[in-house]
Design a protein that fits this description.
single chain, Rossmann fold, OB fold (Dihydrolipoamide Acetyltransferase, E2P), 2 domains, globular
């Protein structure tokens, strides 16, 4: 009978090196068939967290349980091979002297017929039927990745741990391989913890994102919520470029050259930062002689001069030097829009898509 609770429970993990906490009070819950992504910059503690779940790193404090059975605590350490955990890394770690079938079947228990049936099943699942007699050097990067996935899934692990597994693939292959991998993991009902430093990968694959910084989870939730309700300016900036407008709160409002913004809860006289993503900084084409009138949600237009414009395929990025204070703001415009340097245009802000945070004083 399946365990009724989360397949993987991680409670208050802590690990230090040379007296510095690299993982500090990290907790996770991952259900069967769920993908949780540990997202953050290099050195934030996400790979160390993964290694503690795998059992290759001992924890100092906290607890890890799989299907309700404790596998790690300060007084208990179940070895990796006894945890029902599968591992996938960016270098695939295939044995070059073994065939594809032998790689997938490596470590499988049971008689020869049972192992051969499982290997054949997985070759079908990863679209590599007929590749069993080949060796890794005869495969493309994408094919090697699928062999690594099949090998990790072969013993039917309860938890799959993936550390930057797609970073060795070129961009042309990556999206397709991610989708195949995700479909198979969901079908197998495996609880997945994926480590990545790429926000796009986390948004594409995760059911839940745990954003890490300095050894701690600073925000956790569904991708939509983490992206659209960032906990602070750094969280917003991790997912995309941002524009920042500074002001001083007066009552529940902050006046800016783009009009007044609601900033309740920050206190009268508090310095605040209004954060806007480039796609929510709009060009007022009406003042340029075309397009619709601005809506009340767009606030007051402000003028800036074009510094540079770049076409990126699906969009154009246009940087402006703003007249009101000389600051630089960037707008993302769908399609081709390449105004000449020095062109003066009016900009508006989608007020309903802004984030307001307390201003952080610069370090001395």
């Amino acid at each position: 009978m399946p365990h009724p609770g989360p397949r993987l429970v991680v409670d208050h993990l802590r690990r230090s090196f040379a007296g510095r906490a690299v993982v500090d009070d990290v907790s996770l819950r991952v259900a069967a068939g769920q993908v949780t992504c540990l997202l953050g910059p290099s050195g934030c503690g996400k790979s160390t967290t993964l290694r503690m779940i795998a059992g290759v790193e001992r924890l100092e404090a906290g607890r890890i349980a799989i299907d309700g059975a404790e596998v790690a605590s300060p007084n208990r350490h179940v070895p990796p091979e006894a945890r029902s955990v599968g591992l996938m890394f960016q270098d695939f770690a295939l044995f070059p002297h073994l065939t594809v079938a032998e790689n997938i079947g490596f470590g499988l228990k049971g008689d020869r017929g049972v192992k051969a049936a499982r290997v054949g099943e997985l070759l079908e699942r990863v679209n590599l039927a007929g590749f069993g007699t080949k060796h890794p050097h005869q495969l493309s990067g994408g094919e090697q990745q699928r062999v690594a996935l099949a090998r990790a899934l072969a013993p039917r692990p309860k938890v799959m741990l993936m550390d930057e597994p797609f970073s060795g693939l070129d961009n042309r292959l990556r999206d397709g391989i991610r989708d195949v991998t995700l479909d198979i993991l969901k079908d197998e009902g495996t609880a997945v913890v994926l480590v990545t430093h790429e926000p796009d990968e986390a948004m594409r694959m995760a059911d839940e994102i745990a954003l890490m910084r300095d050894g701690q989870v600073v925000q956790q939730g569904a991708p939509y919520n983490v992206y659209n309700a960032p906990v602070d300016k750094a969280a917003a900036a991790f997912f995309s470029d941002i524009n920042v407008i500074r002001g001083v709160s007066r009552g529940a409002l902050t006046e800016t050259p783009f009009g007044a913004f609601l900033t309740p809860g920050h206190g009268d006289g508090a310095k605040v930062e209004i954060v806007i993503r480039p796609q929510h900084l709009k060009i007022d084409f009406d003042r340029a002689g075309r397009g619709p009138n601005p809506t009340p949600m767009d606030g007051t237009p402000a003028r800036g001069a074009v510094l540079r414009a770049r076409y990126l395929g699906r969009e154009s990025l246009v940087e402006f030097r703003m007249e009101f204070d000389g600051s630089t703001l960037t707008a993302s415009v769908p399609g081709v829009f390449l105004p000449k340097t020095g062109t003066a245009l009016w900009l508006m802000i989608r007020r309903d898509r802004c984030f307001v945070f307390p201003a952080r004083e610069a370090a001395a």
